[in-house]
Amino acid sequence: MTLPLLLLLLVILALGSFLAGRARALMVAGGDARRLHSLPAHHGLNLMLAFALPSAVALAGWLLARPAAAPGPAAMLAIPAIGLAAAASLWLTMRPESRARNEVEAAAKGFLILCSVIAIATTVGIVLSLLFETAGFFRQYPAAKFFFGTVWRPDFRGDSDLGFLPLLWGTIYVSAIALAVAVPVGLFAAVYMSEYASPRFRTFAKPAIEMLAGIPTIVYGLFALITVGPLLRDWIASPLGLGTSGASVATAGLVMGVMTIPFVSSLSDDIINAVPQSLRDGSLGLGATKSETIRQVVLPAALPGIVGAVLLAASRAIGETMIVVLGAGAAAKLSLNPFEAMTTVTVKIVSQLTGDTDFSAPETLVAFALGLTLFALTLGLNILALIIVRKYREQYE
Amino acid sequence: MNDLRLTERDLDNRTARMTARKVQVHYGQNHALKDVDVDILDKTVTAFIGPSGCGKSTFLRCLNRMNDTIAACRVEGQITLEGEDIYDRRVDPVQLRAKVGMVFQKPNPFPKSIYDNVAYGPRIHGLARNRAELDEVVEKSLRRAALWAEVKDRLHAPGTGLSGGQQQRLCIARAVATEPEVLLMDEPCSALDPIATAQVEELIDELRENFSVVIVTHSMQQAARVSQKTAFFHMGHLVEHGDTAQIFTNPRDPRTESYITGRIG
Ligand SMILES: Nc1ncnc2c1ncn2[C@@H]1O[C@H](COP(=O)(O)OP(=O)(O)OP(=O)(O)O)[C@@H](O)[C@H]1O
Ligand SMILES: [Mg+2]
Prior knowledge:
The structure holds 2 protein chains of 2 kinds.
Chain A lengths: L2 H26 L11 H26 L7 H21 L6 H41 L2 H6 L3 E2 L7 E2 L2 H32 L2 H16 L2 H24 L8 H26 L2 H9 L4 H30 L2 H7 L16 H9 L8 H35 L1
Antiparallel strand pairs in A: 1-2
Chain B lengths: L1 H14 E12 L2 E12 L3 E5 L6 H8 L9 E9 L2 E2 L7 H7 E4 L10 H11 L6 H14 L3 H4 L12 H14 L4 E5 L7 H14 L4 E5 L3 H7 L2 E6 L2 E7 H6 L4 H7 L5
Parallel strand pairs in B: 3-8, 3-9, 6-7, 7-8
Antiparallel strand pairs in B: 1-2, 1-4, 4-5, 9-10
Helix pairs in contact in B: 4-5, 4-7, 5-7
Bound molecules: adenosine-5'-triphosphate (ATP) and magnesium ion.
The site of adenosine-5'-triphosphate has 14 residues of chain B, from β2 and α2.
């Protein structure tokens, strides 16, 4: 017998114990379900849990103990037997006044707790593994040189300069340009859509804007590389004497901004729509114009949500890689000129981990340090957002 | 009866601040108001009474064009303010609403501080020249709405943190602060305790010295106490309109009589 077969057997037995529990409940109640404390289905579920939980624990324990082997005949029988024993004892002790419903409720709560623990544990695990690798990196490369170094010049033969600042600068610069495009355009589009547009226009325009979010970022990257980059170079950068590079921070920022417009607009639109009509009526009823109403009542009421939307867009922009590679290039540089090629943290993480890598060299391990710093950055951003939102809640609710 | 008609027409010509003639309102297919003729007299409190859903709020919203914000709503007929048709294309509804203020059926304070709620209208219309003047307007309005004593120490706390009845009084203060010529109040006391109700009624009486007030109410006693004119609506029709004393003591229409004596509604 094999593992899939064992699983099938367990499922069949679990279903069987549900039916058995339901039937038993009716039996102890003498056929009258009204005499029961809990519905027959609760007793069924309870019995099923009584079977399934011990079996699952036994199965997990057995798999952990002998991960490679297929279950032998002994285990095949022992695992369901444990569950059956537990179920049988419950079956025997069942009374009309047994509180199966409360136990099922407790089990449901336990299941929900388990799910949130999984989510949290995964995050903690990821952070821990990042921390571990990062510590390895800092044993080989001084932290001060990493955090304050202004030159990024990795060399796999050793003696690299792994300064973080040029990458951080590139990330901030590109994201700032992206947000400068996405936030006003997205927000004003959302205001138009929710406050001014006719329902017919809305039904057509909203999905059209949201379609922007469905375009794969590599396509945006191509667009940046082939259209926007040369356009900016030929029409703005060259005439102004600001450089002749097709790849530039401005290119990547603009295209990334377009990509993040739907994040801002779609969320803000929903949030603005959720502002109760009575607030608008109140303002209009005092003789405020539509735009005064929007500026002074609707947007402040929607602000916490809008901040959330902007932060979502910001973390998208910070994490974006493809558009940067194709739009801004891969040269780490500290410069103020938006028409120069630069690059970001994520791009460098990819380039340090592709090709021939040696997971003990600092040139590879630096990727983890970069990842951890990026994580700390977005975490800080989220906390900031939380503080802003809370401050406004206090003031406005 | 003829005499009454005559005096009413007399009043029309002299002191009617707002007049409504043959007003019809449709919400899509629903014919919510049919042929309503009402005069809102100067320095008078007019009460609208009638069973729920008869169109009182709808008519009130016609008077300051709040129905413009409802896409499905269509208003026909003629409504004038000081002789000017308010549905004329040259009339700016925004200006109109500054002159014809409104307190809504449900309290709707803005998510701002108590102070900013009251200062909202004066700020928009530039009614105060400096902070001190604004402070004064805010205090006066809050006092008139019988809320000052309760909130004077927390003017900068959020208005949404007040109790339901306090919120309604805040909305009244907000509407009063704009100094409208006509104040429309849609069941302003439905969330208030008897003490606050008495204070609001006092305010209404005081406002009458300068403004016209229209109040929708489900309380016959309140209508009798505060109003000089009463209009009775039933199923979209204006059934009867006249002096409050006459409506309550000697109604002409049997429907009015059964409503005020509690037999329909
Ligand atoms: N926004 C709206 N859209 C569609 N129909 C509406 C709308 N508002 C009111 N109506 C309809 O118009 C009619 C009159 O409603 P209105 O709100 O004026 O009643 P009311 O007399 O104020 O009642 P109440 O005393 O319960 O407040 C009702 O039939 C109602 O269904
Ligand atoms: Mg109403």
